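Standup notes
- HV: blocked on the assembly model, inputs below
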Amino acid sequence: MSQQGKPSKPVLADLILPVGAAAYAVYYVLSVRSFPFQAQVSGMAMAILVCLLVSIFLVRTLIGLRRGRYRLGLGDFLGPPESVPNRLLFVGFILAYVAAVPWLGFTLTTFVFLCLSFAVVGVRPWRRVVVVAGTAALVGWLFFIVLLGTRFPAGPFERLMGALF
Amino acid sequence: MELDAATLAGLFLHAFSLWYVIVPAVLIGIVMGAIPGFAAHNTIIILLPLTLAFDVETALVFMVALYCASHLGGGVPAILVNIPGTGGAAATTLDGYPMTKKGEAQKALALSFVASVLGGLISSVVTLFALPYLSRVGYYVHSVEMVVVMLFGLALIASIAAQDMLKGLIAGAFGLMLGSMGADHIYAAPRGTFGLLELFDGVPLVPALIGLFAISEALVMLEETSIVRAEDGAGARPVDWPATLRNVAYACTKWWHITWCSLLGLVIGVIPGAGASIAAFVAYQQSLFFSKTPEAYGRGHPEGVVAPEAANNGVTTGTLVPLLAIGVPGGSTAAVMMVVLQFHGFPFGPRLFVEAPGLAYGVIVAMAVSYVLMIPMIFPMVRYLSKVTVVSTLYLAPLIVAFTLVGAFVPRGFVFDIGIAIAFGLIGYVARKTGYHVAAILIGVILGPLIERSFILAMRISGNDPFVMFSSAIGNVLWVLLVLTLVMPYVLKRLRERSGPPAAEGAE
């Protein structure tokens, strides 16, 4: 609790972005250290700006911690704890989507991704999961690939349809 | 060519006679504008073979109608699901989505559509008469002024988008840093790319936009089962024609706000490279600054929707002014139009007004007519689009991810760009959960390379003298405004604290 009796605010999650920004700024400066002045100057100026702002933020956080206004903790950063495992699985499916789309193509990857995602976040019954995922994937194929001719990754389904029509 | 009443009437009647070109273009533009990753210039490029097959007048009318409609369409997902369809609609999320969460999606859409249509219409008509004067704006803005204009825009965004200005500034500076990634403009030396060849051209903007807004929003969305808060009882609210008409009538009462915000957008749009995103944020900040209820902004305030949407559509004619007046495209869509003019053997710049004045003025009139023809097409949509908010997030989140991730692939055709969208999605998730507004990061990423280009140009011209940044009168005025932007919120907050308790939340 803070000195005024107000609950202290968890700030650990608030530090992720500034620390990440400062780390990237340092890496950026290191990556340009051997370049000519013209190639360094603007990036250096921005890196100094980032580090200056992050330093002010860290000082403010330290003062807040000392005065009891802040505490080290994540708070509700990850959202409701009961759904964290399912949402982490959802993130895993997103990563798998990137890996699969060059091989399976847009339509099949979208169908499988939607089926798994709907299932893991709690959509039921299974028949609805398959029907909604299938309809969405087919509508996407019709609209983006057939109508607009967008260069989405092609897989077995797109090649089969291309051969048939 | 004299712009008398008879000539104008002729131009307008001729533009209306091309309704069969404008109507499909508007429909395509609204749909494509609402899908992140399919900005107007991408769509126009996809449809370039079609437009090159048209005669030059039909092609230009088709393109401007699609362009205007895509600016309007970008606001729809910004309001309904907190994902701007285009960068220009990023500011609309600030109050549009909170209105949706309060169960006022229908009202927010009506405000957005009225502001877009009136804003675009007003700026088109003003451009028609003020073209010779507007074209001079570009002459006064050089590399020094561009650096300050862009820093000013970023400071505005940082100060209004985040509840904590320091967090907003850190987000903006981080965005600038990410935007500086890639080969430098003189030696083509790769900087901060982690050795990845795909990043040598810098951070691609579409995957960044999709990640920061769509992927992160989908991840946050899954923490609730519905977009609309249950206690607001939005599902029970009537979504019928009388309610739609009442909302449209209410939006029309904001006509003065729409007028000045669209003119602000027009002036900013004339500056090559400034763009719709800066115009929308500047209009939002000015609206907040002159408001009697500034504390209501960011919580679902109607004027917080009207201001950025009017400016976002005021920009549309502004970006064509440099192309028409001096032959320099003011944006990517104008650049594609330049290609079409070149293909058909037409000049651009002042010679266009000498050799084909009907075409030059006709393009601007076609924009005005496009906005008029949008009216019967979009207002029925208010009623139906707002129903998106009652769809469970269990369906929405996976659908958003599936259809926007693949949009990241479109501009360059690299699967790597889908990975960039995911990386920005995780950055966006952290930003959303900890109060660093994603709009500030995105605008930083957009402006990073532009600021760098102008900064290096100014430094080279001055022989690497850093004081060149304070060498122009316009630039110095903008520096003062920038400092005021950073200082004034603190001063005003202190003054309000002294004068009494804040007004009630959600006051209009």
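- HV (later): unblocked. The mean pLDDT of chain B is 83. DSSP finds 23 helices and two strands in chain B.
- Next: hand off to the docking folks.
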